[in-house]
Amino acid sequence: MAPVLVLDxxxxxxxxxxxxxxxxxxxxxxxMKSKAERRKTxxxxxxxxxxxxxxxxxxxxxxxxxxxxxxxQRQVWDHIFSKDVLNVNFADTVAMVTEPFFNFTSIxxxxxEIFFEEYQFKALQRANASTWSxxxxxSTQQKKPLCCVVVDTGYSFTHITPYCRGKKMKDGxxxxxxxxxxxxxxLKEIISYRQLxxxxxxxxxxxxxxxxxxxSSQFYKDMETAxxxxxxxxxxxxxxxxxxxxxxxxxxxxIEEMNYAGKYKGGEQMIRMANxxxxxxxxxxxxxxIGIQEMGIPEAIVHAVEACPEEMHPHMYMNIILTGGxxxxxGFKDRVFSDLRALVPQQLEVKVHxxxxxxxxxxxxxxxxxxxxxxxxxLVTRQxxxxxxxxxxxxxxxx
Length: 399
What we know:
Elements: E1 4-9, E2 13-18, E3 25-28, E4 31-33, E5 41-43, E6 57-59, E7 62-63, E8 66-67, H1 70-81, E9 94-98, H2 105-118, E10 123-127, H3 129-140, E11 147-153, E12 158-164, E13 167-168, E14 174-176, H4 180-194, H5 202-212, H6 219-225, E15 237-240, E16 251-252, E17 270-273, H7 276-279, H8 297-306, H9 313-318, E18 320-323, H10 332-343, E19 352-353, H11 361-370, E20 380-381, H12 382-388, H13 390-396
Parallel strand pairs: 1-9, 9-10, 11-18, 18-19
Antiparallel strand pairs: 1-2, 2-3, 4-5, 4-6, 7-8, 10-20, 11-12, 12-13, 12-14, 15-16, 15-17
């Protein structure tokens, strides 16, 4: 059996590894330059070598969730496939790659060309990440579910996809233009407006978001708590920003060391986070808060399910899977459940599942798929591509 390379090519990180490995490598899918080392370009995980991460300049291959900058993407892929990272022998390796929903034909064709003509892989399978996730979910449950809904909330946007017996229901696919990138940018803007100019500090503010933000289950109650003074304000946290000499990574001040008057003896730079902690992730549930005229995730799930035949609804609400980086925000799963419970008819049961590692779930699912008996039928080999060209790819790959 030829080695299988599984690449979940996300807009923020590429999750990549061979199907024989236990877990993937998470490689930032971008090229970065640092203010401190102007001459040097950091590709993917080379950023770990960078000593000063303030004012990083990003060049991303993805814009608005679609792969548009091929030069940058090629640089990242060259780095991933090189002997420094995975050391891929293209001629006898099968590649499995993900792509977003509603992807443009021109992007798909360029992708086929690069994988077959430039890298010359032995065979290729191209699919949506949610399709892999749905396959893994239904094969790991004790009683195989008939239908499920995969909520993939990533960097550029959130996709909600209903599946029935492993086939995606095309009429039910919903996309919200709200993802992790928007949350980070929104946090940067409000902190810059209220406290400290951080508009250039994308990398650091992304860490702040991951460290202190959470999804509130009672938004208005938390809003009132955030207005209180002193120790009554249980929401308030002080975040110590890195200075990249003593402090290499920012951290949250322990509650017992917090000084509510806001004056500290040490010279560290602080950001005081109160309602920002939960008001930023709230955008996922109410995009209209920042002027985006779209529904939130729970409403969109209901919308997606209602586009499918009625007899599937009970099965779908029982099997809702949350994947993608935003699912790691604490309180996310409970909030999705409580909002859905309010929207879904009383007689239907609602169950929301969140895997232990929502970011790498699709990659693990790709690995599981590569070990199933009918896997060879999903591939397009290089001989087939040479003979039939792009047509066979558009016939074979269900995207």
